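Input C-alpha cells:
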C-alpha cells in the first residue's frame, strides 16, 4: 500500500489508513486501482463518507 500511496502523490501510509477509517480520496484511489467503484468496497458508507464498519 505504501508504494501505491507514494505513486498517487500521498504519504506512504495514507491508503492503509483508508482501509481502517473513512477517507474518501484514498477510497477512490483504491477502488480505481482494482477497477471497481468505492461503493462496491464500502457499501455501508453514507454520502458524507461515514461508515458503520471497517476492516
Amino acid at each position: 500500500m505504501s508504494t501505491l500511496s507514494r505513486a498517487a502523490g500521498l504519504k506512504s501510509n495514507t491508503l492503509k489508513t483508508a482501509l481502517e477509517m473513512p477517507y474518501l480520496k484514498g477510497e477512490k484511489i483504491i477502488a480505481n486501482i482494482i477497477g471497481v467503484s468505492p461503493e462496491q468496497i464500502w457499501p455501508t458508507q453514507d454520502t458524507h463518507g461515514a461508515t458503520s464498519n471497517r476492516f
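The chain has a mean pLDDT of 83. The chain has one domain: 2-41.
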